[in-house]
Amino acid sequence: xxxxxxxxxxxxxxxxxxxxxxxxxxxxxxxxxxxxxxxxxxxxxxxxxxxxxxxxxxxxxxxxxxxxxxxxxxxxxxxxxxxxxxxxxxxxxxxxxxxxxxxxxxxxxxxxxxxxxxxxxxxxxxxxxxxxxxxxxxxxxxxxxxxxxxx
Length: 151
Hints:
Blueprint (H helix, E strand, L loop, with lengths): L1 H21 L11 H8 L3 H38 L11 H20 L1 H30 L7
């Protein structure tokens, strides 16, 4: 455990020092991948730039694969509870294939429109939807319960 603590401390120091090398650079704000920019500005950039690029791609691919697998498992389990059909072990069902395809299409569409754009639009919509769904029932509940003085 002590070795892990020391390694984590060293890695955090390296990250902080790396960020300190570029935090005043005005180009940093305009970068779509700040980690790659930080590596390109640092020591050993000729060696580290291809390495960090490969690591970013591997991280994205492994995240996508695990996300799709988790979604397929949840969707299939939810649909299996409703269905009375028995599944054969080890065989990929039609619902699993369709769920994987739907997740991949959704991921592709998110990538095409841009995740940040989607989040900016969705957060504003969700904020307005929260008013009738969360705020109004809460205020009504508080009024009926006389601000939690009535039990």
